[in-house]
Amino acid sequence: MILFLKLFLAHILGDFFLQPTKWVKENEKKKLKSPKIYIHVLLHIVVTALILWDITLWPIVVIIGVSHFIIDALKLSLQTKKTRRRWFFIDQLLHILVIAICCFIFSETSLDLKSLFTEKVILLISCLLFLTLPVSIIMKTIFLKWNISELTKNNESLEDAGKYIGILERILVFLFIILGHWEAVGFLITAKSVFRFGDLRDSKDRQLTEYILIGTLISFGISIATGIVYNLII
User: Fold this and answer.
1) What is the C-alpha to C-alpha distance for residues 170 and 83, in angstroms, rounded to an integer?
2) Are 91 and 79 in contact (CB under 8 A)?
3) pTM, whole model, 2 decimals?
């Protein structure tokens, strides 16, 4: 575990703190012709070596350095303006995967899949996944009874922002409940009410106000119920 934490710390420092935004822009513009990508990889190698501070782990430093260059080069070569966000997450996942593989190969601990997939872990993952897209679809189905698009046609907002906000708030409520922090749930409800107060005050449409209230209550209600069920089963 300590090896993974060291490599993860080196990754955070090298990829975010020691890589200025202007380097990223230059790399995206010039791709492999940019000298900044090679400086970035070199810095990453140096930081990893310093944090590990163990000459016997030099193969890890080499693997991290070479793989980092290959992954970054692949991202720069394949990404476009439209896929930039997607490739950012792919890039980070691949870097973390390499770190995990290095830890598995060079650490003395063995990976026991049975200990990872216990009933508690499976239930936790199932609850978290249920609170994302399935609940969004359930709520969308509930609101088919009303013409929501007509109510929100003049509401200028980010695309799918409401869906992502709902998913995040449900996950937070669920986590607060299984950790026993009910006061945090009350704080979250209060915070959302404050942010929504302006919409409700400025809107003279009673139907829109009712839609917001119903959506909030259903979202929080499902999250609370899921958290309670999880705790009862555990």
Assistant:
1) 28
2) no
3) 0.72
